[in-house]
Amino acid sequence: MSKGVIELHAAVLAAASAVGKKEGAGPLGKCFDLCDDTDRFGAKSWEGAESEMQRMAFNTALSKARLRDTDLGALFAGDLLNQCVGSAYGLLAFDIPYFGLYGACSTCAEGLMLASAFVTHGIFDRTAAVTSSHYCAAERQYRTPIEYGGQRAPTAQWTVTGSGAFIVGNAEKRSKKATIRRAMPGIVRERGINDANNMGAAMAPAAEDTLVRFFHATQTRPSDYDLIVTGDLGFEGGSILCDLMRADGYPLGNRYTDCGQLIYRRYEQDVHGGGSGCGCSAVVLASYLLPKFESGELSRMLFLSTGAMMSPDSIKQGQNIPAVAHLLEITSGNLL
Amino acid sequence: MSKGVIELHAAVLAAASAVGKKEGAGPLGKCFDLCDDTDRFGAKSWEGAESEMQRMAFNTALSKARLRDTDLGALFAGDLLNQCVGSAYGLLAFDIPYFGLYGACSTCAEGLMLASAFVTHGIFDRTAAVTSSHYCAAERQYRTPIEYGGQRAPTAQWTVTGSGAFIVGNAEKRSKKATIRRAMPGIVRERGINDANNMGAAMAPAAEDTLVRFFHATQTRPSDYDLIVTGDLGFEGGSILCDLMRADGYPLGNRYTDCGQLIYRRYEQDVHGGGSGCGCSAVVLASYLLPKFESGELSRMLFLSTGAMMSPDSIKQGQNIPAVAHLLEITSGNLL
User: Fold this and answer.
1) Is the pTM value of this prediction over 0.90?
2) Could you name the CATH architecture of B2-169?
3) For an interface test with A, which of B69, B79, B98 has the most A Cβ atoms less than 10 Å from its Cβ?
4) Residue B20 in contact with residue B67, Cβ under 8 Å?
């Protein structure tokens, strides 16, 4: 509550992920719940595939938690598609009050923050957060027309085809389930970057801003956490963030990583700047990071999803890229 | 809390609106705080004008409440533009944690619901909700290419150029300020309408669904309220809603109206189906409805913002239009 920190107490009851071929072939491939090697998920369009991926991920999370849709009080969801149609169509089949979000690639942490706040304060017993991105739908929307043989910039990132779904509820006693304990919502920051092929650089100052405000407000330091992980700064943005944090007196050191660096094999999979997209941090959190709390490998983590809030039009109009980073402190359930 | 109803207690400390020429010339023209007869708000692009309109409306609300941006804990904002750039750029100047929303034209009620929940549960002392739409930016995005001399359909609605901003906080004792007391978040519904020129028809079933669930859960009836007002069903959707509610056993009668019906002179201003857009319900609530609580003209109202969640792509792909309606119960502050 003080200085922008939100105190929370919400257990992640279940999490699930659905991904495409490239993600399935990456270093975390075996972690994900569902993988469709056609990237189509049985749909006729890429936008339809993204919706279907959300529906599958959320259905899987529901069945892991042994819940039905009507057991949930609210659903917080969003994606990168214009008018967030990935979520609106993907989750239409479920009979749950729906809060649509747009936080670009910060949607995973934004949704989990709101879902956790609703549970912490007893507004509803259980809520969910769902998000997604699809490489082909994003290319069509953000980068059409794509020139034949055009070289991708070294700092350009690869949109993850993936959807992550999370169900949160009251923390049970002595549960090992990861618990969301504090959050720091991000402030939109813009530091002069207008290159849509270098979104990591645009987003790094937003992540720095949120981290510094959080460390200051909570009187903690990077060394108090097992892991500090950002959503999709990728290789370029991640390295900028480390420089910025060192200059601020909070060196992150080797406890820092980024979901966009983890999800692909950088050179073998030809991904240049690393992974990005709402689905990037969502599937890595759901299927790689959260299980480490149950296994005891992690007990205290800072997780930030980072979003670049520009549109293709705002870029063409010469505007700089504003960005936002939402932070969650996640701890092992048996801590405290 | 029970059956989907959220109990709230948040006073609207200040509300402000900025509108364009057509809105200023309409029947509510004198109510609005700011009106730019050029629709440009000093910006070079229509998208920039929408951002600037948000900045002005929010600044006006802050100054009415005698607050600075840093006095607010969170800002809930969204608009119709791709990637919600109206809000991201418009509110960039303010040093406030930012939750981006996408609820199409339901954003006003969605934002106020979340802002009120954060205040009610003491997460922050004061929060804000801001939204906007701009006729020219919306035409460019949704309806380009516009054929020369093309006839608009009789059910087509006119996107309101306007932005509404609201600051909510703890209710003071014996204050006359309007207070948000209960809310019912909407479930996304789709009933087979795929005509983007008849969004009122697509949204009416969502409004019906939320209203019926609310009346049922709270054991109230339409006659318990002075006014029941929807966001932008317009003339077609409003009349469909009245038919649906009558069939459900909850006739709305003459206490029902719609912001999209109120904001323009239907025939003189050539608006066909009425007003629409995120800004429609926001400016009518901010500058026409809320002041009626302070004057004592209204003491208990149901306010619903209604959103059609399709995109131009989903329409071209032949998909039906899903819709959502979020409800707020607003009462006079000295009630209870």
Assistant:
1) yes
2) 3-Layer(aba) Sandwich (3.40)
3) B98
4) no
- C-beta of residue A174 within 8 angstroms of C-beta of residue A334: yes
Cβ of A88 within 8 Å of Cβ of B319? The answer is no
> Is A184 strand, coil or helix?
strand
Q: At what angle do helices B107-120 and A107-120 cross, to 10 degrees?
A: 50
Contact yes or no for B81/B163 (Cβ under 8 A)? no
List A residues 41-70 in contact with B (Cβ-Cβ < 8 A). 44-45, 47-48
Chain B residues with CB inside 8 Å of A118's CB? Answer: 117
Q: CATH assignment of B179-331, given 3.40.47.40, 1.20.1080.10, 3.30.70.360, 3.40.50.300?
A: 3.40.47.40
DSSP strand pairing (A323-331 vs A179-184): antiparallel
Rounded to two decimals, the ipTM of the complex is 0.97
| B121:A124 CB<8 A | no
Per run of 10 residues, the mean pLDDT along chain A (length 336 residues) is 86 97 98 98 97 98 97 98 97 97 98 98 97 96 80 93 97 82 98 95 98 98 98 98 98 97 96 96 98 95 98 95 98 78
Distance between CA atoms of B273 and B140, rounded to whole angstroms?
19
